[in-house]
Amino acid sequence: MHCLEELRELLNRHLYLSFVTQEAHYTLCPAQTRYQRHLDQFQYAPGRTVFTTSYLNWDWHAEEGGQLCLHLAERLQDLLLSRNRLVLFRSVDIQHEVLLATRERLSIICWLRYRSALPIPVAHGIV
Fold first, then answer.
1. Rounded to whole angstroms, how far apart are CA atoms 71 and 17?
2. Could you state, in order of their start, the residue ranges of all structural domains in the chain?
3. Is 64 left (phi over 0), alpha (psi -120 to 50) or beta?
4. Could you tell me how far CA 47 lies from the centroid of its own chain?
5. 23-113 placed in CATH 2.60.120.620
6. How far apart, in whole angstroms, are the C-alpha atoms of residue 47 and residue 22?
7. The whole model's pTM is what?
8. Which example biological process does GO assign this protein (predicted)?
C-alpha cells in the first residue's frame, strides 16, 4: 500500500484534496466477462471518489477486447489494456464499464476515499 499512500498524499498536497484513505484489491476476471456501465458510488458508502486502475496483463492486443470505456459528457473514451498503464478518474461522476474480453484480465483497482459522514449499514440475513 505504500505507493497508494504516496499517490493519495501527492494528490492531496498538489491538488488541495482531502482524501483520508484508500481501498484496493486485485482483480482476476475470467475470459468472456465484462463489467456493465456503472458509477463507483454507493448510497450508503459515499466516500469513493477517485478510481485508479493499473493493468497487469502482458502482451495484450486490441482484438482481445477488455477496454475500459469512460462515458464522458462529450464522448466515449476507450482505453486499451496495457501493462504498466495507470488510469485515474473521478468515479463518483464518470460512468464507466469494462468491455468483453476474450482472455483473462488482471488488474489492481483502488479508490481514494473521503471520510464518509454516513454510517455503513449492517446487512441482515446474509449467510
1. 24
2. 23-113
3. alpha
4. 13
5. yes
6. 10
7. 0.78
8. cellular response to hypoxia
pLDDT digits (tens, 9 = 90+) for 22-72: 888 899 999 999 999 988 876 656 677 888 888 888 888 999 999 999 999
Q: Which three cell numbers stand for residue 92?
A: 463518483
| Runs of H (alpha helix) within 1-127 | 2-15
> Are 23 and 48 a contacting pair, CB within 8 Å?
yes
How distant, in Å, are the alpha carbons of 20, 21, 25 from that of 14? 15, 17, 26
Q: Are the beta carbons of 68 and 35 closer than 8 angstroms?
A: no
Grid coordinates 484508500 are at which residue? 22
Give a three-class secondary structure readout of 59-96: CCCHHHECCEEEECCCCEEEECCCCCCEEEEECCCCEE
User: Whose grid coordinates read 475470467?
Assistant: 30
